[in-house]
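To the team - nicotinamide-adenine-dinucleotide complex, inputs and output below.
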Amino acid sequence: MNDDWIKDKVAIITGGASGIGQATAFAAAKRGATVVIADIDEKLGKETSAMIYDKGHQCHFIPTDVTDKRSIADLVLSASELGPIHFLVNSAGLQTYGTVETTTEEVWDQTMNINVKSMYLVANQVIPEIKKNTGGAIVNISSVQGIRSQKNVAAYATSKAAAIALTRTMGLDFSSEGIRVNCICPGSIDTPMLRFGAAQHGEENEVLKEWGSSHPIGRVGTPEEIAKTALFLMSPDAAFIVGQPIVADGGLGSIIL
Ligand SMILES: NC(=O)c1ccc[n+]([C@@H]2O[C@H](COP(=O)([O-])OP(=O)(O)OC[C@H]3O[C@@H](n4cnc5c(N)ncnc54)[C@H](O)[C@@H]3O)[C@@H](O)[C@H]2O)c1
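Output:
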């Protein structure tokens, strides 16, 4: 398949300054998309878009808080001036820890707002643009923790399960209008988010090795592997896939112990 389906079309990647979003921004830009990185981290956002641009691709950074609908309105207006918006990848997210007993209401709300309400808020304003431009695709980044859980992640796991349900309803609501919506449920992926978590438990690389060995495949995943899955879901190769959680976890979610 050639890249006509994505060439010169705007792909908004929330959380595109780091980790999975950054790798997806790179992958989409390499295929010819006009990438818009929407991230709250201005320093990393500028550095990432400059890095992609310097490699000869189209990439812009628009500072955005995905929990704030006025900030999203600015994003959508600026992105629409760069070309027709056809794609959205919702990768902005936050890992939090705690049981229902130890999680404060503030952390609970923050986790829900960044990990799942943002998907609604951004899609709410981007979908009319995609419709105007006669279709496209949305990929939400959930987690294998939306399906299976470890201990001490009450808010995070709940937000990721909600993202799967949201994806399903979005898929049902918009597929007949030419917008396919799916989500990815990654296992542990080597990103700054995972490394931050690992550093709480010991020497980062050692902890990542240990976490990797709990995945049947024997290692943690790379952001590029998730980016490839996102590009597949965005592409016409995935034309008949609607509202699905695609698990990319090295087998982690399939084991009992
Ligand atoms: N890394 C993993 O092991 C893993 C596994 C499963 C799912 N995920 C999910 O993948 C997504 C990306 O995670 P990652 O590992 O790449 O993390 P990351 O921390 O490397 O990147 C997350 C990005 O989101 C941005 N962000 C946070 N709050 C924001 C806000 N309010 N507005 C705009 N941007 C905001 C951050 O600035 C950062 O650039 C998250 O939703 C995460 O829950 C990650």
